[in-house]
Amino acid sequence: MALISILGGGESGVGAALLAKSKGFEVFLSDAGILKPTYQDTLRENQIEFETGGHTMDRILGSQEIIVSPGIPEKTDIVKAIKAKGISLVSEIEFASRYTKAKLVAITGSNGKTTTTLLTYHFLKSAGLKVGLAGNIGQSFAKQVMEDKHDIYVLEISSFQLDRCFEFKPDVAVLLNITPDHLDRYEYKFENYIASKFRIFQNADAHTSCIFWTDDEVITANLNQIPSSAAIKRVSFNGPADAYISSDKIQFDGAELLLADAPLKGPHNAINMSVAMLAAHEAGVSYAQILASLPFFENAPHRLESCGNWNGVEFINDSKATNVDAVYYALNSYQQPLILIMGGVDKGNEYKVLDPLVKEKVKGLICLGTDNEKLKHHFGSIVPQLFATDSLEDAVIKAKEWATNGDVVLLSPACASFDLFKNYEDRGDQFKNTVKRLIHG
């Protein structure tokens, strides 16, 4: 019996283990950390061998194939050893896609993936289709494939997952945008990150709908990476496109959406909605059905999420904005004066692109992190007032002190959260709770 090893015991790893077991493989799951008790119980119930707190290299290197968690970098010793032996090393997405005949809609990009994925899922589900939600969101793709209850899946796909996809071929492939992110995983070379994102199109043919935002200069400069036989669908502000975004509406072939009626605001969300509507349409849903279901969409938390109003000051949780481009979109979504809370673990950010918007809109910058020097150095001469702290409570108190009626206090960090918080969700939840406690007493 062929051995498949799984590196990483999170949602995707345990799901991959279950699918592999159901397909008759001997399965061994190895995690350098400690697995959640619920995952341990699941593995035991299914008689899947696992280890925690380290890796048994001899056992792992005896595998026919290894499924790797997206959180494990290529530069780790164990990945280097696997590659040196020439063992097949794939992502959960690659592995699971072999075992389903369901239609696949895959969405990637530096920003807007989750909103666009949830929108697309909402359109398909509202149309009555049996649809699964997976990838970076929802339950494990592999586990859902094993249960075989869906005719179509909407997958939010990261560059890390794409790095270990080789035969993966979605029916609808979406690339929203590309801006510098996670460069520490790509030898600090932007071109490596770009190539990773374009892997979503690598197996496209005439039966694949390839959707992208054509105004993105990085995407348009690399269109030669899309196979020439693929069916191209474009979104644009600037000219003829399958979804053309003007100042007041989005126009499709035989349909239009007035932006004033849309549940999501801001230019970036106009792109997200356009792409999601095109993706759902390419997957078989009519524009009439899509437009009818759009008003009932509720976005995920931590994405420009209103979390309280105090004396005419609105507090916004945008903790999911973990890179500079996401902050750019957030700043562009408001006309009111802003008090901006930024900071965390810098990922090699270049903040210069934010300067015009910060000068125009930000009346005060609060730097929240254990190391705020880079932010202070860059923005110190740009903003009228700046405050640095490693205390979320102090940050909110300072924001209240500076704010006046009509202002917006915006948590949009541009950075990872791991210096002070477990993850961006924890950061956003703590911000909401702190705001609630301090403004409602």
From TrEMBL:
<dbReference type="InterPro" id="IPR005762">
    <property type="entry name" value="MurD"/>
</dbReference>
<dbReference type="GO" id="GO:0008764">
    <property type="term" value="F:UDP-N-acetylmuramoylalanine-D-glutamate ligase activity"/>
</dbReference>
<dbReference type="InterPro" id="IPR004101">
    <property type="entry name" value="Mur_ligase_C"/>
</dbReference>
<keyword id="KW-0132">Cell division</keyword>
<comment type="function">
    <text>Cell wall formation. Catalyzes the addition of glutamate to the nucleotide precursor UDP-N-acetylmuramoyl-L-alanine (UMA).</text>
</comment>
<feature type="binding site">
    <location>
        <begin position="109"/>
        <end position="115"/>
    </location>
    <ligand>
        <name>ATP</name>
    </ligand>
</feature>
<keyword id="KW-0961">Cell wall biogenesis/degradation</keyword>
<dbReference type="Pfam" id="PF21799">
    <property type="entry name" value="MurD-like_N"/>
</dbReference>
<keyword id="KW-0067">ATP-binding</keyword>
<dbReference type="Pfam" id="PF08245">
    <property type="entry name" value="Mur_ligase_M"/>
</dbReference>
<comment type="similarity">
    <text>Belongs to the MurCDEF family.</text>
</comment>
<comment type="pathway">
    <text>Cell wall biogenesis; peptidoglycan biosynthesis.</text>
</comment>
<keyword id="KW-0131">Cell cycle</keyword>
<keyword id="KW-0547">Nucleotide-binding</keyword>
<feature type="domain" description="Mur ligase C-terminal">
    <location>
        <begin position="302"/>
        <end position="415"/>
    </location>
</feature>
<dbReference type="InterPro" id="IPR036615">
    <property type="entry name" value="Mur_ligase_C_dom_sf"/>
</dbReference>
<keyword id="KW-0436">Ligase</keyword>
<keyword id="KW-0573">Peptidoglycan synthesis</keyword>
<dbReference type="InterPro" id="IPR036565">
    <property type="entry name" value="Mur-like_cat_sf"/>
</dbReference>
<keyword id="KW-0133">Cell shape</keyword>
<feature type="domain" description="Mur ligase central">
    <location>
        <begin position="107"/>
        <end position="280"/>
    </location>
</feature>
<protein>
    <recommendedName>
        <fullName>UDP-N-acetylmuramoylalanine--D-glutamate ligase</fullName>
        <ecNumber>6.3.2.9</ecNumber>
    </recommendedName>
</protein>
<keyword id="KW-0963">Cytoplasm</keyword>
<dbReference type="Pfam" id="PF02875">
    <property type="entry name" value="Mur_ligase_C"/>
</dbReference>
<dbReference type="InterPro" id="IPR013221">
    <property type="entry name" value="Mur_ligase_cen"/>
</dbReference>
